[in-house]
Hints:
Layout: H1 2-30, H2 38-67, H3 71-86, H4 89-96, H5 108-113, H6 115-118, H7 122-129, H8 133-136, H9 140-145, H10 147-150, H11 154-159, H12 161-164, H13 168-173, H14 175-178, H15 187-191, H16 195-198, H17 202-212, H18 216-219, H19 223-226, H20 237-241, H21 243-254, H22 257-264, H23 269-279, H24 283-286, E1 292-298, E2 309-314
Antiparallel strand pairs: 1-2
Amino acid sequence: RSIGQRQAELRSSAGRAEARILRLKSKQRSLGMPTRRGPLGSSARLLETFFAREQVSASVLASLLASASDPWGLVRSDAMSLARITSRPDLLAGYARLPDAPLLLPHAAAIAARISLLEAHAPGLLLAVEGHLDVVEPHLDKILSNLDKIEPHLPFVLDNLPVLAPHCGILLKHMDALLLFADSDAYLPSLLPYVPTFAPLLDDLACHLVLLRPHMRVVLPHLEVIAPSAHRFVSAPIVSENADVLLYYFSWVLRLPAVGRRVLGAPGMPRIASLLARIMPKWPVRGGCAGVRCNFDGCDLEPSVYAGRVGKRARG
């Protein structure tokens, strides 16, 4: 179901983009602008696309230089890394042979700006991106801009790129919340099979990620049963906030997968679970921390909106 929803969203987005293109073309005609046809017109459009992407790539380089405490040191480090990579003709030839290698050209500035971080992963990148570059390329500048956060987890990403690449855009959008789960090697491999299920829902469920993170140890064993009904709890963050309490009392239901799925899919269950999360005693689970709760006042719970300012506070 989630994949179908994502496909519908992509079709809708593509429809809006096509409509905007048609409106712009109509405006061009109304202004008397000539229509570009034939080989020259196609070449002009390709150049415009190239330079538009190159401009974004250059902005990544400029931003890194502006924020660096030692810009010349950064340039020297990148130049040395680039020299070491170019001294490996087999590696360069491998990248040149990639079917989609020309897609990398507009991103040359951003790649050069990050080459010192990418150098150690260059052989692994070559093996991993083949067949996925066309999906990753539209998001490449954003990936490179945030490479400081991503690089510690890059081996895991490359090993599992066939699963992650189709959802690259939405995962990058909610990267900060998702990286909360990357601090434990136990979670990433266990969560990987659920990427196709949850990635299309992240715009709706991202606000729950921070709330769930402290409870993942008890949630993860039941995730197979919970996942199909997760979308029903978008507007019930208190359920995620108190997942440990609810599972303490009711995990026995989820241990019977067929029963658990029926219960979670029952009409009104999000409201029932929210009520139980408020009234069930917390001290048997949390002890002296029973009075500490999450603050999601800044979290917009309307579908497809993520405000994401989630913290903790102690009730007075």
